[in-house]
Amino acid sequence: WVQEEAPDVLCLQETKCGVSAVPPEIRALPGLPHQFWASAEGRPGYSGVGLLAKTEPLNVTYGIGDPEHDADGRVVTAEFPSLFVVCAYVPNAGRGLVRLEPRLRFDAAFLAFLRRLDERKPVLLCGDLNVAHTEIDLCHPRANRASPGFTPQEREGFTRLLGAGFVDSFRHLYPEARGAFTFWTYLGGARARNVGWRLDYAVLSRRLLGALCDCKIRSTVAGSDHCPITALLAV
């Protein structure tokens, strides 16, 4: 699928994979020779992201400059001539919301990081942001008001991101689209019944809207409990 899609940049989240353990077939993906991997320090099999690019970035950084969160390997940022591409795997608040407070601290630190980038050049944020922003973004909103990914605090964090000059590209283009989900639990045949959540986003600086061509949810692509999304920009 990746070879057919032929992306300029491929962002992967929750890789659970250290740099030395990246499979050789991923290393050898045609057209994506520049690869940058982050993984959790001392926690093999936890978290992790990868950013793969067709052309070599000007610069690559890891983390968001916050020691509480950077050890988890959740963010890789690649600078290109016209924009930053940020690949992110935002923490889950956890069963029973036991990690909600650290999640909210991450949200605040991550927003500050994105704003600093945005002061320099436009930003495209791609990743599993672990939040369904509005009721249209999950199948059963009423039953999930206290569930991780749909608490008022997490949703407000995403609202603050949008208020800081960023745009949810899919919802900008398709404001009324229903059943547009990117995650389905493996339990109960959820994917076949499209009982899902939209947790994966392409968020961009508002001044990039003129370059936005489309944002597609590739819901027929199998291989994970999430599906890929594709952002198309003319930059």
Automatic annotation (TrEMBL):
Mg(2+) binds at E14, D128, N130, D225, H226. The record marks D200 as: Important for catalytic activity. CDD domains: Ape1-like_AP-endo (cd09087). InterPro entries: AP_endonuc_1 (IPR004808), AP_endonuclease_F1_BS (IPR020847), AP_endonuclease_F1_CS (IPR020848), Endo/exonu/phosph_ase_sf (IPR036691), Endo/exonuclease/phosphatase (IPR005135). Its EC number is 3.1.11.2, 3.1.21.-. It catalyses: Exonucleolytic cleavage in the 3'- to 5'-direction to yield nucleoside 5'-phosphates. Its cofactor is Mn(2+); Mg(2+). One of its GO terms (cellular component) is mitochondrion. It is an enzyme of class 3 (hydrolase). One of its GO terms (biological process) is base-excision repair. The record marks H226 as: Interaction with DNA substrate. The keyword Chloroplast does not apply. Keywords: Cytoplasm, DNA damage, DNA repair, DNA-binding, Endonuclease, Hydrolase, Lyase, Magnesium, Manganese, Metal-binding, Mitochondrion, Nuclease, Nucleus. Probably binds two magnesium or manganese ions per subunit. The record marks N130 as: Transition state stabilizer. It is found in: Nucleus; Cytoplasm; Mitochondrion. Residues 1-226 form the Endonuclease/exonuclease/phosphatase domain. PROSITE patterns: AP_NUCLEASE_F1_1, AP_NUCLEASE_F1_2, AP_NUCLEASE_F1_3, AP_NUCLEASE_F1_4. The keyword Transferase does not apply. The active site is at Y89, D128 (proton donor/acceptor), H226 (proton acceptor). One of its GO terms (molecular function) is lyase activity. Its main location: nucleus. Initiates repair of AP sites in DNA by catalyzing hydrolytic incision of the phosphodiester backbone immediately adjacent to the damage, generating a single-strand break with 5'-deoxyribose phosphate and 3'-hydroxyl ends. Belongs to the DNA repair enzymes AP/ExoA family. This is DNA repair nuclease/redox regulator APEX1. It comes from Orthonyx spaldingii (Chowchilla). The lineage of its organism: Eukaryota, Metazoa, Chordata, Craniata, Vertebrata.
